[in-house]
Specification:
The chain has five helices and nine strands; from the N terminus they run E-H-H-E-E-E-E-E-H-H-E-E-E-H. A hairpin with a 3-residue loop joins strand 4 and strand 5. It is of the alpha+beta class. Strands 1, 2, 3, 4, 5, 6, 7, 8 and 9 form a nine-stranded antiparallel β-sheet that branches. It is globular and about 45 Å long. The protein binds a DNA duplex (13 and 13 nucleotides) through residues 43, 45, 52-54, 59, 61-63, 77-83, 85, 87, 100, 102, 129-132, 141, 172-175, 177-178.
Length: 212
DNA sequence: CGGCCGATCCACT
DNA sequence: GTGGATCGGCCGA
């Protein structure tokens, strides 16, 4: 298990990065607890030309500034006054691309996720939805700007390659206001039948047996 | 300042 | 399927 390195985040094609992130592990070590989830849903936000992107038209504010930084940091913000949404900043400095993580398969530290979400939540849905996964993982928008290369929030790579046939591509959620950009195929979802298989790949056997 | 709005979620019908 | 919660960010005056 290796922490994803800088070269991964510096890629220029944020849509492809969103696809590559499917199946990787998102890790948090917050408040003395470790929680991990397998990334199962992402969306790409394609910089200054994308009307759904906060940095559309080169809009630079205190909130969006981190999107203009070099790839490899997290961009967190408060949505609807209630939910923290977790994004990964991608590409070179001054190219404000980002990937929103929308769903995880809970993998490790599930007891802590339950504490954060409430004991009544269905175990399989602890990290379903961008606001919910932030709550389960212990993310807060005050952590925006942290580097994923040297802190306690990061992505683990494990060598597992997810074939395209296991990934559903669709338009992004909740961005109707982006008009002609609302229907772009920038959302990637791991097909449900494959979620269980992938979780088993992570749980069983040596790495050499887990390459799919 | 004041007002509007949002990359959501949940309870309720 | 619908509507209310809830509040920081953003913009215009």
């Amino acid at each position: 298990m290796m922490r994803l390195q800088k070269s991964f985040y510096l890629q220029s094609d944020v849509v492809d990065v969103a696809k590559q992130l499917i199946g990787k592990l998102l890790v948090s070590k917050i408040g003395g607890t470790v929680t991990k989830g397998i990334i199962s849903e992402t969306e790409a936000y394609n910089g200054i030309k994308d009307k759904a992107c906060h940095a559309f038209n080169n809009k630079r504010t205190n909130r969006t500034e981190v999107m203009f930084h070099e790839g490899g940091k997290c961009y967190l913000y408060l949505c609807y006054g209630v939910h923290t949404l977790f994004n990964i900043v991608v590409s070179e400095k001054d190219t404000p691309n980002a990937v929103l993580i929308r769903s995880l398969i809970p993998f490790e530290g599930i007891v802590f996720m339950k504490e954060r979400r409430g004991l009544s939540v269905n175990e399989n849905k602890l990290c379903s939805g961008p606001g919910n996964l932030s709550k389960a993982m212990g993310f807060h928008y005050s952590q925006s700007g942290l580097s994923l290369l040297e802190n306690d929030i990061f992505i683990e790579d494990n060598g597992i390659i997810i074939e395209d046939q296991h990934i559903e591509v669709s338009k992004r959620i909740g961005v109707e206001y982006a008009k002609e950009h609302a229907d772009l195929p920038y959302r990637f979802v791991l097909k449900p039948y494959f979620c269980d298989q992938l979780k088993k790949k992570y749980s069983n056997g040596p790495l050499s047996d887990r390459i799919s």
